[in-house]
Amino acid sequence: MTAILEQSVPTPHGSLNVAIGPENGPPLLFLHGVCRRWQDFFPLLTPLSLRWQVIVPDFRGHGASYRKPGGYRVIDYVEDALACLSLAPTPAAIYGHSLGAMVACGAAAAAGPRVRGLILEDPPFDTLGAGIFRTAFHSLFCGMQLLAGQSDRPTAEIAADMAEIRLPGPQGPATVRLGDVRDAVHLRFGARCLQFLDPAVLTPLTAGAWLDGYDKAILLPRAQCPALLLVGNVDRGGMLPGPAAATVATLLPDCALLNLEDGGHLLHWSHTQEVLNHTTLFLESIR
């Protein structure tokens, strides 16, 4: 089988680094979460590329894609998704994780029939909007911003510094180390991603302005294609509480909601086979 290869795709703002697989079926666009890179989807790419042509970009400010300080709100990333959809000769399915899931909804609202279906993995929506200051995620992203863009430092050193980021504990004023709630392998991969992240990516996020210009009540009903919503448990790190997930599922015109109660936010890593099973069945239903 032909390998998944990276190439540079021009946009009006700069070039996107995009990995593209062999033409084994309809296009399937993957959109990663904030602070990640296209390689984050490796557990899903090989099996799904047997019947789909995977298209997997680094978002602006991430990996090897262009930088655009001042252009890192959620709504801004929709432009990158639409540029990738222009590579697809036929209507594409979109798999988005976290930030990528919100962007996928915006892209589907804008692209109409060019999107055949959505798989949305634990989109945070309002959790990382103006309400981020009430969550442990604010401390997390402030700490990560201090480490971003240090490509000249060893990955192991950045991972060690990531492990020392202090997060509010579940009870009282005590804090916990990130290294006590995230394993060493995920810390190391996260550190590698941070080495190639524009620190400005996290400015609107930590300022509570990430969702400015993005209104899910308007955008989601415009996404007229079928959708699969995969949701983790907030007590395990999931970012979409049950009532909010129900609201999202109601706003989408055709949505199947699946709660993975023993999973957190990174479902495609912690529950790979389960996510793959559901995703495969859903994709077969929209081919």
From the structure above, extract its key features.
alpha/beta, globular, 10 strands, 11 helices, 287 residues, two-stranded antiparallel ribbon, 18% strand, 8-stranded mixed sheet
Report on the architecture of this protein:
With 287 residues, the chain is an alpha/beta fold. The protein is built from 11 helices and 10 strands. Helix 2 (74-85) packs across helix 3 (99-111) and helix 5 (155-163) crosses helix 6 (184-195). The longest helix is centred in the C-terminal third of the chain and has 14 residues, at 272-285. The two termini are 21 Å apart.
Describe the structure concisely for a colleague.
With 287 residues, the protein is of the alpha/beta class. The protein has helices at 42-48, 74-85, 99-111, 137-147, 155-163, 184-195, 203-206, 216-222, 242-251, 267-270, 272-285; strands at residues 5-10, 15-20, 27-31, 53-57, 92-97, 115-121, 166-168, 175-177, 227-232, 255-260. The strands form 2 sheets. Strands 1-2-4-3-5-6-9-10 form an 8-stranded mixed sheet, with helices on both faces. Strands 7-8 form a two-stranded antiparallel sheet.
Radius of gyration: 18 Å
Task: Note the main sheet.
Answer: 8 strands, mixed
Q: How do the SSEs run, as a string of H and E?
A: EEEHEHEHEHHEEHHHEHEHH
Strand order of the largest sheet: 1-2-4-3-5-6-9-10
Strand coverage percent: 15-25%
